[in-house]
Amino acid sequence: MTNAIFESVSAPRPDHLQLASPATAADTGVSPAVTGFYDEATGSIQYVVADPVTRKSAIIDPVLDFDPRSGSTRTTSADRLLKHIETQGLTLEWILDTHPHADHFSAAGYLKDMTGASTGIGERVVEIQRLWKAIYNLPDSVSVDGSQWDRLFADGERFTVGEMEVSVLLSPGHTLSSVTYLMGNAAFVHDTLLMPDSGTARADFPGGDARQLWRTIQRILQLPSGTRLFSGHDYRPNGRNASWESTVAAQRAHNLHLKNCDESKFVKLRMERDRSLPMPALMLSALQVNLAGGRLPPPESDGRRYLKIPLNAFSYASWVA
Ligand SMILES: [Fe+2]
């Protein structure tokens, strides 16, 4: 399955996995404290999630602020997360990304340096690293083994935040390495299900796949109906306030892209919609940072860091109608 923007890139494809029913960590009865922080510039939601018993916590999908016009970075958004952790008396154990983001820089590297907490992402990130290493023509010295993170999570793997068990669900479709973190009755579903009035995430990036996204969504919707779902983006349709929390029941009943759909209808709808979407403005900047674990490229001889933009690597240009 190819698409307009990325058809010139030869990418690994998901194997159209038939994903098993999710493990039911949601049966534990734990209801973690979840605080979402909305990033107006990119429509991203960053989360701090805490075990209510031990007050141990995790950050999910933190943003490193980047202004593409000036090339400036700052840590205002990430510092806000740290301030929240401090004022709430939490202890940070994990810094997690659900996938390598195409629309914002991850602050995982900065937060790791500030706190020493462990970083983690889905294990298939190495396939995306290999793909983009070639696109960026990065030197051999750049590792594509996932060593930029402390943990690479496989499907079904479990770990803990305090005493709260976390289950990892492989959730490919938007990207081939996307994962969902399931903690008690909360699931962090990133760019799979957006809010019901917004539908679902695009599936046309290299390694993305609409059919696989449908199967991932069906897997998520097998979770108990009261499971709280936390989305990774919200673009405030019709100017409504930003929102990011739904439930499995609400998504089953109301999701714009799933209503009256079966797999083939969804694939057709998703692919048609993706053909109309422009390439994300920060994609070529963001991926080289995010595939390095949220770290900027090393400084050059003048002490300054530089991003690299491959020219004419993609068939799409914004002036193409
Ligand atoms: Fe994404």
Give the tags.
321 residues; alpha/beta; six-stranded mixed β-sheet; 7 helices; globular
Task: Indicate the topology.
Layout: E1 33-39, E2 44-50, E3 56-60, E4 63-67, E5 72-74, H1 76-87, E6 91-96, E7 105-106, H2 108-115, E8 118-122, H3 125-136, E9 151-153, E10 158-161, E11 164-170, E12 179-183, E13 186-190, H4 210-220, E14 228-231, E15 245-247, H5 248-254, H6 263-275, H7 283-290
Parallel strand pairs: 3-6, 6-8, 8-9, 13-14
Antiparallel strand pairs: 1-2, 2-3, 4-5, 4-7, 10-11, 11-12, 12-13, 14-15
Helix pairs in contact: 4-6
The chain binds fe (ii) ion.
Report on the architecture of this protein:
The structure is a single chain. The chain is 22% helix and 22% strand. The chain is of the alpha/beta class and 321 residues long. β4 and β5 (72-74) form a beta hairpin. The radius of gyration is 19 Å and the shape is globular. It binds fe (ii) ion. The site of fe (ii) ion has 5 residues, from loops.
